[in-house]
Amino acid sequence: MSKCNYTSQSGIPCHHQSEHDQHLCYWHNDALKIEENLTYLLEQRAKDDFPMTGFQLRKANLEGINLVHGGHKDGYQLNDADLYRANMKEAHMFACNLKGTSLMKADLRYANLHCAKFEGCNLLGVRLEGARLEGATWGREIIQERMAREAKLTSEKFDYWQQSEEIYRNLRKASEQAGLFETSGHFFEREMVMRRYQMPFFSTKRFYSKIVDMFCGYGERPIRVVMFSLIAILTFGLLYTVIGVHDGGEVMRWRTEHSFTENLMQLLTCLYFSVVTFTTLGYGDLIPFGLSRLLAAIEAFIGSFTLALFVVVFVKKMTR
């Protein structure tokens, strides 16, 4: 058995500590724990209401363990622990704090992880089929993303981006199975971003992927399509104000000799023309001429494409 290096805050080694601290030494020992009553021991340890920070539970058989902090809003703290390949199938871990814990290849199938905290966890290879994930928090990014940014070698970055894509794909599938489609959509978006980072920097595929992300967040952010449409309409409207469009026999454009009110009316008229052009309505009351014809053709093409994209993205979000 490996020697325990646990030392209390007072600086006294484990073998000079009280019975409670010696028990703590046992949980921090990195030796494999194969006791038949291990699940019972950990449940009793949790009921002492001391944080279970840094517990070493690699390959531990904890199937069906009950770590629900009954009568409390906050769950037990099992943060910064090592649960590599641990069997926690059908575990009850409502609101459990798992921040910073290694769940690499852990078995959490059919576990109750409602409101659990997973910020900073290593989730590579974790099994979540059938798990309850309602209200779980995952943090802004997984640790592999941070490690990829900090890596110096290109090969290391690529490896971490690849791991990140795999983790997000796994989380997406688990969320879909749990019926959490909004969360699943977020994980799908992050999965596609991780895939993009693995592409050559100046490749056509990466450029196309970035454009799709900017326009609609890989189909998960219809608001981006709306914002792009508004920006395009405003931009072309300003250009029409400078170049001008025909309104009967009068040219509508910005003129320095006009008053502010007159120029404002010209601007509003050109914005109206931009709207009907972008939406391909084309009432015919305003007519482009010269360079404004080219702008109108470009805007009509962008508008038809953007409106079709919005319908696809909106339907995708609403039919989940």
Summarize the structure.
By secondary structure, the protein is mainly alpha-helical.
Describe the structure.
This protein has 320 residues and is mainly alpha-helical. It has 3 domains: 32-139, Pectate Lyase C-like, CATH 2.160.20; 140-218, no CATH class; 222-318, Helix Hairpins, CATH 1.10.287.70. 47% of the residues lie in helices and 2% in strands. It is built from 9 helices and 3 strands, in the order αααααααββαβα. It has helices spanning 19-28, 38-47, 143-150, 154-177, 181-197, 204-216, 222-243, 260-278, 291-318; strands spanning 245-247, 250-252, 287-288. Helix 4 (154-177) runs antiparallel to helix 5 (181-197), helix 5 runs antiparallel to helix 6 and helix 7 packs antiparallel against helix 9 (291-318). The longest helix is centred in the last third of the chain and has 28 residues, at 291-318. The radius of gyration is 29 Å and the shape is elongated.
